[in-house]
Structure prediction request, 444 residues.
Amino acid sequence: MNIEKKRYIIFLYSLFLMNFVIFVIFTGENEMEILKQRILKDGVVKEGNVLKVDKFLNHQMDVKLFNDIGEEFARRFAGLGVNKILTIEASGIGIACIAAQHFNNCPIIFAKKTLSQNLDGQMYITQVKSYTKGVTYDVMVSKKYLGKGDKVLIIDDFLANGCALMGLIHIVEQSGADLVGAGIVIEKGFQVGGQTIRDMGIKLESLAIIDSMDDGKIVFRD
Amino acid sequence: MNIEKKRYIIFLYSLFLMNFVIFVIFTGENEMEILKQRILKDGVVKEGNVLKVDKFLNHQMDVKLFNDIGEEFARRFAGLGVNKILTIEASGIGIACIAAQHFNNCPIIFAKKTLSQNLDGQMYITQVKSYTKGVTYDVMVSKKYLGKGDKVLIIDDFLANGCALMGLIHIVEQSGADLVGAGIVIEKGFQVGGQTIRDMGIKLESLAIIDSMDDGKIVFRD
Prediction:
């Protein structure tokens, strides 16, 4: 093989490698880009900094998007040994179930918000205030399904003031399980929840962080 | 080729075909067999005909089983043009989301049980009595996500007296959408819900029907 031919092959190979790297980076970023574009397209900003995403996230649900979200959580929490996913009823459940498929079909537990006759007394219990609904719930998880040896990833659709997430963290603490981190679909970055949780040293991954929604215009954190 | 050889080949081919047919039948039945075995293994019968399946269905959730369930629903409602799945919070959501993957990733809507500030006024509304919790809920679906042209499959985890399912049927009727049918994971065959819904001419498919739970012994309908 002459030197010209060798150089040409090296050149082609470099080109291929470069494209591959660009593709990998692009695909990784794309997960969140898909979500952000969807929020811009289908999200509706209402008075009082309310963001309605009930077209695809928490009333009508898009499982194709949920699979993209699950894949991205799996990328961000890879190698951390997650063997259980914890969420809270109702809107976290769909995302958590689809995401679990990207964590080796690990079990999902959804924390329940009221005392039901179908749940017996052996529960971890905490209180969570819902600003959206203006009430305080008892939030419960059965002691049978969470305990030492579990490596727990918390998944939820929204993070605003952080009350629901703090409740779930409190339940994981009570159980003696390890908290790997928390994966959130949409964080309202202008409310205190995200900062509070990060200041506790918890690995918090929000796929879209909204810094402001003034005059109905959604601005994402880069 | 001599006649002996021909006969031998035909014999082998018949054997293969027979095995194939047995395999197909077995796989079809197996879906439900897996579920029934799981109910026998992990279900707990409590006083007052309460069946607790919170180890795999409605508190801790097994998405591998949910995929088997989704596949079976897809088999039973194949060719009927399902393009939307309707369920009710909270325990129907996980099953419905996983099942949607077996219906071309069609959208899922979960009916909400209380009036939340995040839902505006344009709703289909019905009342549902919960015997488990001893209360009556307003159950709502946004008019934006259900209407004429939709072919709706209702999915839920349990069917007992049928109140929740009747509520969802009422919502589909209000919307003008076509009701394809209802897929239920566990039906308590000794309560009135199943018979009532079937008498209305609705295609109701329950993957496990329990005929009795006397003295803690679960008996399935064949």
About this structure: The mean pLDDT of chain B is 90. The interface with chain A takes residues 46, 50, 52, 54-55, 58-64, 66-67, 89-90, 93-94, 96-98, 100-101, 105, 107-110, 112, 114, 116-120, 132-134, 141-142, 144-145 of chain B (CB under 8 Å).
